[in-house]
Amino acid sequence: MHTQIVDPVPSSKLPRQLSASRSQRKLYRVVVHGLRYFCKMLPELVGNEQWDIRDRATHTPRQLAALVRDLRTCDLVFSWQGRIDLGPFLLGARTLGAKKIVIFWCGSDVLRAQKLFHEGKKDSWVMQQIHWAASPSLAEEVRALGVDCEYVQASFVRLIERPAPLPSEFSVLVFLPRPDLAELYGWDQIVEVARSLPNIKFNLVGLREGQVDAPSNVRIHRWISSMSPIYDQTTVLWRPARHDAGIAFMVLEAMSHGRHVLYTYPVRGAVQVKNASEALAHLKNLSALHAVGELPLNEMGRESIANIYQRDVVRDDLRRRWEEIILA
């Protein structure tokens, strides 16, 4: 069994004496730029009377003018796009005098950067900025490029206060967005294990286009408007991704619902499995426990959500970290 626990740096290690500085500076202004889906969530998540969070991820003429103005006067720049080369946004931030810059890595950022690194296309100024990553494994990949990078949890989920009991029928939830991404998302492993467990139902979600050759015990759900009913019918989420964008939202959501999770990466509350044979062994064990009524909800996963991945926890940690950088 390959279970590892990796936690973000506890807030107790961050500076405690910040209250006096807050009274001297009532408002911090932060410019966020990069992936629009995430940038648009940050003003609501972090903003309040002391934090003016400005989403400048859109590029209309008016937004670009506002971006130029804000880069001159902001306290912090938060770029939700990892890179080691000097793109237009970072060039603009440097030219306009932005002093405090955090570069946040997620998704396929590191794959692009690895290619640039081997081609010798890197910028020393960019690499010397503050770099954070969306998962411990992603931070490790970035550090392999010669960049000092720290894992910081920036995405969050809501803790389901009264999760549904595990369903009477044991089932496994898997994910694949497109057939051309089958290798990346471990579809070959899913097929292998599903064929080895013909009496267990597998539910595939996310496939909005194309076709895949699936065993008869794999049901394909083309479009899901709400995942909550799916989680209610799920016993185990298995995500055999070969390279994930960070800690997958589905992993966090499943744990919030008290579902058991098998995942490629180490996450508190989930079981790390590295290949099909390990997944098969764990699924057999979980299925046997379920059959005799001895499989409870995944309370360790729910505890992990409450302590690390819940909205208020992520928000407070971001504010503390950002304030530390601004005041340094």
Task: Describe how the helices and strands are arranged.
Blueprint: H1 19-24, E1 28-34, H2 36-39, H3 42-46, E2 51-55, H4 61-73, E3 76-80, H5 88-95, E4 101-105, H6 109-118, H7 124-127, E5 130-133, H8 136-143, E6 149-151, E7 171-175, H9 187-196, E8 201-205, E9 218-221, H10 228-232, E10 236-239, H11 249-256, E11 260-263, E12 271-272, H12 276-291, H13 299-309, H14 311-327
Parallel strand pairs: 1-2, 1-3, 3-4, 4-5, 5-6, 7-8, 7-10, 8-9, 10-11, 11-12
Question: What would you say about this model in short?
Answer:
The chain contains 14 helices and 12 strands.
Strand order of the largest sheet: 2-1-3-4-5-6
Strand coverage percent: 15-25%
SSE ordering: HEHHEHEHEHHEHEEHEEHEHEEHHH
Structural class: alpha/beta
Please count the helical segments: 14
Mean pLDDT: 91
The level 1 CATH classification of the largest domain is Alpha Beta
Residues in helices, as a percent range: 25-40%
Q: What separation lies between the terminal Cα atoms?
A: 43 Å
Q: Over the alpha carbons, how many angstroms does the gyration radius reach? A: 22 Å
Q: Biggest sheet, open or closed, and with what strands and sense?
A: 6 strands, parallel
Number of strands: 12
What does this structure look like?
- The chain is α/β, with parallel strands linked by helices and 328 residues long.
- The chain has two domains: 11-155 and 311-327, Rossmann fold (3-Layer(aba) Sandwich), CATH 3.40.50; 171-307, Rossmann fold, CATH 3.40.50.
- The chain is built from 14 helices and twelve strands.
- Helix 9 (187-196) links the parallel strand 7 and strand 8.
- Helix 9 (187-196) crosses helix 12 (276-291) and helix 11 packs across helix 13.
